[in-house]
Design brief:
The chain is mainly beta and 130 residues long. The protein contains 1 helix and 7 strands, in the order βββββββα. The chain has a single domain, classed as Nucleoside Triphosphate Pyrophosphohydrolase (Alpha-Beta Complex). It has a 4-stranded mixed β-sheet, covered by helices on one side. A 3-stranded antiparallel β-sheet has the order 3-2-7, with no helix packed on it. The longest helix has 13 residues.
Length: 130
């Protein structure tokens, strides 16, 4: 049976409606993709802990809102289950903490960026709804 990885992913928008995207440093690999592709904020879910908060890579604390979508993606050696939540900044300032690239991107431009395959369908839906 393949390894199943549960991941909480934050969909963070600014007041202009743009989404925050980050790119892991080249030396790091994403558990979902095995690459340094762009991603929303997020982290693995440990044990029974709910998808309660975005991780600290963005330098701020986030309030996690409603579950937007759950995506199950099967890679040859593992299954990744992504739980995408709407999030807003609760405190702090969003800034890179690990030297990663960050950008605010309009929904219709998201598809121009290199996201892991598991994120692609959601990226298309976000772009369509603007």
């Amino acid at each position: 049976m393949p390894l199943v990885i549960e991941v909480a992913a934050a969909l963070i928008r600014d007041t202009a409606g743009r989404y925050l995207i980050t790119q892991r440093r080249r030396a790091a690999t994403s558990p979902a993709s095995g690459s340094s592709r762009r991603q929303a904020g997020g982290g693995r879910i440990a044990g029974d802990r709910a998808a309660a908060r975005a991780d600290g890579r963005a330098g701020a604390t986030f309030d996690v809102g409603k579950l937007v979508e759950t995506v199950r993606w099967e890679y040859p050696d593992r299954i990744v289950v992504l739980h995408f939540h709407d999030c807003r900044v609760e405190s702090g300032t969003i800034e890179p903490r690990e030297g990663q690239a960050m950008a605010w991107v309009e929904a219709e431009r998201l598809a121009a960026y290199d996201f892991p395959p598991a994120d692609r369908a959601l990226i298309e839906r976000l772009a369509a709804r603007g």
